[in-house]
RNA sequence: GCGAGAGUGGCGAAACUGGCAGACGCACCAGACUUAGGAUCUGGCGCCGAAAGGCUUGGGGGUUCGAGUCCCCCCUCUCGCACCA
């Protein structure tokens, strides 16, 4: 309970504002009357206001969560005031390694821990007064939900978009578990500090790369934060280049190994070994002085002669042992010569073939042509191993020495020492060389994407089992849809072990089952799927949570989706949003959805810091929302969160600051209770009111919450200035404007004002455009750009009259000596006299 | 290194297509009402200066009658990506 006893200044004492009581009252009423749970079927003007659902941690709701939710709620409540039927659902992203690790640390089973966390989250969210429709709540850990997550997997599998292949993972030999990249710090396991290794495991992938171009192109037409779109573009990373074939020389020398792999006699030279490389700089082909293969490249086994074999193998083994993070972070170039040579198709020169871990197998072809003269990485490597460096691109005049550093500029540069291509610009050179290669079947233009296929396998316990069976007779068999969900069994030993497979693989009683095709014994897939899959479709589920027979109801989906407004953190700018788009496109292609982009509008909110520093448990500066709501009330807390900075940039939470918005709400309370009903409303107040309605109505949709609140405070100051007692007609619209921010007090005051229906059904106040414009204004008068006076003058005044009025001011006249050289008059703005 | 964003009073921050820099709030100062006030109300509050006036949006140049806003160079911070050929 609060110990706050508001005081009054004006005669009659009003009942003090007691947020705890008001908030309790209205939360109970909303629930009882179902105000926040609209009838979805055929609802007029549907508006789907989605907030990113949280991972329900054991620590409870973070202010960051509340900041995000509140901003979304305000948007939703505003749209409701504008007459939309607003659907604002809530749920929990409760599967995943994060929950699992936490459960392991506490020694509590996640199946026990998570429901407790969820309950706590729900309590906190409810306390904050969000307009959530609780009748559509969901949790990804609920079998009634993940049944459909598994169904989504099957839809992809059906369409050939889910496949299995070996992929590299981080492996901690001490904890005996697979680690995500974020769990590897400086090459060591974040929990035990043991150096992490690379392991190759069979894993399930989604072929998101097949959608790369579409995912990229559609971005152009989405109403999303520009920064988010840029992040996605970079992540997809389209690059235009060419693949070029290099023929390995002196094949006969390696006939032994080549025949062994070909499996039979003689004609080895006919099937000459070729190396395909990807490059974005085909124009530099004449400068390619060596080739580099990634250690994982298949030809690495075949190329080395007897002299080099041991060294190459040792190098490859060393690279394999290294974890993925260190390998990608370690900038020191290392490599070994294979002993083999290839022919540069342009110059005809033999060039050595090396193996080095700075070339990655997962990008392009896993092999590159090294052009040390024009690539910094190749230059560094060539220096270290004393390989030739040639210059084939030059600016005019050529002042470049490529032995010193790679020359990477391309603008206004031309090719040199490149046969008959010399003299062409870089752009022309690219095209000409590629087309010449193409005519010899030695290369062609190719587009590459940085985007990889999405690995969805997790060798973990806390996730939905991947709905696949392995049968000795039938092979890989998808679980029939009718048999979903494949329930996650409640096992005690859910901690990962050294096998490199999921804990589920220890439970024969679970994974042994019958093949639906041949009725023989089959094994279940024991990996679970990535949490990102759970969240890649949850927005489709919300409207249809009552349906147990389908993932989403066709007509509800048509009516409510795509999501009208989605607000969330930019930390999900790439993965979550990209995966959601991908899954939506796939379901669209499968004829299950009429749209292919899930979120019509997306805005990223900012980050909250505390007194200029990031909040963290170790610093002990984490803001506990409960404590603040206790002391100040949810309305003040919400309003303060929105006031402390621009929503899309975040802000700085300072303990002292909240008193300002609380004072504002106190004054609002007072103004309503003390409002007079007699007499007229004042002209200046009326004008200010209409300006405020316009400003707040403009600011809220663009998430300018801090300035909207400032405008209302300003109006409050005007309304009450000089201990003025406001008129009830001046206060009423303010209650409506405040309501999205401080819904409980607004409802209470709305009732006090004599209304019987919710303020959220009262509509948004209108403003009169005629009242917004001022007829006089304070015109600054400058002399030589320096302000010398401000005169109050009609907005319609013309230059002559303005000048005359200005020169009448002594402070102006004093600086105007002689005739003005120039008069700059901006009607309705200012006057500048240049002398 | 690459990409995105940001640097404005003691502090959090405002500022439309270039047009009074500092709205709104915190803190602070003075006053009023008070037995009292960590309540409320009124007024003040960028810096220098007694004033006139001068200076001021990370630093340096430029365009303009006029620049926080546009252009060039540099510095710092935050976030994301990170040997992507």
What does this structure look like?
With 835 residues, the chain is α/β, with parallel strands linked by helices. The strands form 10 sheets. Strands 11, 12, 13, 14, 15, 16 and 19 form a 7-stranded mixed β-sheet that branches. A 5-stranded parallel β-sheet has the order 2-1-27-28-10. The chain has a 4-stranded antiparallel β-sheet with strand order 6-5-9-20. β1 (46-51), α2 (63-81) and β2 form a beta-alpha-beta unit. α19 crosses α20. It binds one RNA strand of 85 nucleotides through α7, β12, α10, β16 and α11.
Feature tags:
835 residues; alpha/beta; disordered N terminus; RNA-binding; 7-stranded mixed sheet
Briefly characterize the structure.
The protein is of the alpha/beta class and 835 residues long. Helix content is 35%, strand content 20%. The two termini are 67 Å apart.
How do the strands and helices of this protein lay out in sequence?
Layout: H1 19-33, E1 46-51, H2 63-81, E2 85-87, E3 91-92, H3 97-106, H4 110-127, E4 138-139, H5 143-158, E5 162-172, E6 177-179, E7 184-185, E8 188-189, E9 197-206, H6 212-217, E10 223-224, H7 226-236, E11 238-248, H8 255-262, E12 274-279, E13 290-293, H9 306-321, H10 324-329, E14 335-343, E15 350-356, E16 367-370, H11 376-385, E17 393-395, E18 413-415, H12 426-439, E19 443-449, E20 454-455, E21 457-458, E22 468-471, E23 475-478, H13 508-511, E24 512-514, E25 521-524, E26 528-529, H14 531-535, H15 538-541, H16 554-560, E27 565-569, H17 575-589, E28 601-605, E29 607-610, H18 625-632, H19 634-643, E30 650-653, H20 658-674, H21 683-699, H22 705-720, H23 728-738, H24 743-752, H25 769-772, E31 776-783, E32 786-794, H26 799-807, H27 810-813, E33 822-826, E34 830-834
Parallel strand pairs: 1-2, 1-27, 3-4, 10-28, 13-15, 27-28, 29-30, 31-34
Antiparallel strand pairs: 5-6, 5-9, 7-8, 9-20, 11-12, 11-14, 11-19, 13-16, 14-15, 17-18, 21-26, 22-23, 22-25, 24-25, 31-32, 33-34
Helix pairs in contact: 1-24, 18-19, 19-20, 21-22, 21-23, 23-24
The protein binds one RNA strand of 85 nucleotides through helix 7, strand 12, helix 10, strand 16 and helix 11.
């Amino acid at each position: 309970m609060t110990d706050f006893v508001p005081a009054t200044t004006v005669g009659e004492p009003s009942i003090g504002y007691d947020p705890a009581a008001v908030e309790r009252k209205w939360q109970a009423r909303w629930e009882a009357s179902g105000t926040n749970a609209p009838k979805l079927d055929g609802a007029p003007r549907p508006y789907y206001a989605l907030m990113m659902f949280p991972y329900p941690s054991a620590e409870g709701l973070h202010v960051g969560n509340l900041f995000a939710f509140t901003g979304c709620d305000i948007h939703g409540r505003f749209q409701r005031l504008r007459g939309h039927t607003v659907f604002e659902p809530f749920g929990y992203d409760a599967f995943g390694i994060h929950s699992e690790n936490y459960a392991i640390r506490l020694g509590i089973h996640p199946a026990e821990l998570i429901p407790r966390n969820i309950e706590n989250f729900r309590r906190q969210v409810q306390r904050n007064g969000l307009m959530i429709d609780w009748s559509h709540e969901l949790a990804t850990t609920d079998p009634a939900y993940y049944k459909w997550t598994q169904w989504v997997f099957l839809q992809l599998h059906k369409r050939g978009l889910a496949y299995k292949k070996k992929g590299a993972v981080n492996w901690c030999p001490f904890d005996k578990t697979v680690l995500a990249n974020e769990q590897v710090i400086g090459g060591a396991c974040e929990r035990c500090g043991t150096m992490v290794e690379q392991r190759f495991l069979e894993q399930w992938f989604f072929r998101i790369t097949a959608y790369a171009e579409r995912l990229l192109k559609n971005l152009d037409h989405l109403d999303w934060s520009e920064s988010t779109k840029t992040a996605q573009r970079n992540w997809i990373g389209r690059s235009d280049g060419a693949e070029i074939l290099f023929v390995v020389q002196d094949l006969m020398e390696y006939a032994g190994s080549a025949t062994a792999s070909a499996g039979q006699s003689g004609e080895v030279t006919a099937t000459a070994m070729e190396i395909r490389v990807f490059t974005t700089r085909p124009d530099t082909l004449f400068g390619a002085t060596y080739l580099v293969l990634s250690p994982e490249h298949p030809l690495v086994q075949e190329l080395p002669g007897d002299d080099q074999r041991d060294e190459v193998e040792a190098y490859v083994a060393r690279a394999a042992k290294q974890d993925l993070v260190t390998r990608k972070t370690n900038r020191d170039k290392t490599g070994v010569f294979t002993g083999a040579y290839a022919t540069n198709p342009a110059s005809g020169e033999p060039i050595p073939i090396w193996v080095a871990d700075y070339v990655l197998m997962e990008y392009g072809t896993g092999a590159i042509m090294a052009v040390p003269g024009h690539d910094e990485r190749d230059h560094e490597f060539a220096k270290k191993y004393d390989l030739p460096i040639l210059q084939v691109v030059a600016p005019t005049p050529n002042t470049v020495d490529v032995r010193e550093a790679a020359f990477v500029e391309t603008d206004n540069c031309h090719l040199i020492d490149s046969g008959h291509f010399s003299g062409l610009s870089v752009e022309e050179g690219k095209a000409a060389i590629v087309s010449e290669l193409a005519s010899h079947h030695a290369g062609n233009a190719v587009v590459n994407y940085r985007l990889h296929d999405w690995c969805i396998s997790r060798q973990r316990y806390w996730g939905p089992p991947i709905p696949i069976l392995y049968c000795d007779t039938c092979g890989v068999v998808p679980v029939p849809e009718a048999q979903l969900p494949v329930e996650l069994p409640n096992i005690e030993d859910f901690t990962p072990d050294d096998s490199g497979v999921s804990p589920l693989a220890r439970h024969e009683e679970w994974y042994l089952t019958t093949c639906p095709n041949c009725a023989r014994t089959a094994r279940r897939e024991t990996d679970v799927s990535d949490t990102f899959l759970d969240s890649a479709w949850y927005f489709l589920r919300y409207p249809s949570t009552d349906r147990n027979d389908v993932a989403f109801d066709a007509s509800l989906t048509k009516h409510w989706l795509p999501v009208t407004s989605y607000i969330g953190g930019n930390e999900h700018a790439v993965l979550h949003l990209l995966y959601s788009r991908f899954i939506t496109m796939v379901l669209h292609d499968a004829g299950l959805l009429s749209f292919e982009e899930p979120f019509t509008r997306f805005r990223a909110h900012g980050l909250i810091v505390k007194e200029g520093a990031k909040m963290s448990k170790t610093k002990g500066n984490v803001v506990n929302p409960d404590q603040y709501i206790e002391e100040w009330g949810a309305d003040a807390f919400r309003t303060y969160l929105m006031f402390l900075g621009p929503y899309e940039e975040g802000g700085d939470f300072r303990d002292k600051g909240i008193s300002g918005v609380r004072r504002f709400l106190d004054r609002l309370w007072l103004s309503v209770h003390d409002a007079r009903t007699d007499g007229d409303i004042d002209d200046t107040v009326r004008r200010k009111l209409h300006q405020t309605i316009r400003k707040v109505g403009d600011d809220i949709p663009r998430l300018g919450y801090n300035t909207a609140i400032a405008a209302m405070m300003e109006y409050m100051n005007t309304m009450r200035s000089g201990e003025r007692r406001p008129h009830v007609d001046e206060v009423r619209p303010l209650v409506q404007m405040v309501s999205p921010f401080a819904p409980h007090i607004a409802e209470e005051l709305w009732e006090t004002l004599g209304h019987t229906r919710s303020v959220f059904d009262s509509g948004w106040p209108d403003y009169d455009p005629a009242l917004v414009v001022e007829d006089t204004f304070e015109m600054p008068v400058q002399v030589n750009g320096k302000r010398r006076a401000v005169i109050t003058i009609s907005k319609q005044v013309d230059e002559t009259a303005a000048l005359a009025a200005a020169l009448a001011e002594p402070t102006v006249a004093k600086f105007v000596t002689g005739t003005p050289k120039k008069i700059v008059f901006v009607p309705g703005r200012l006057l500048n006299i240049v002398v």
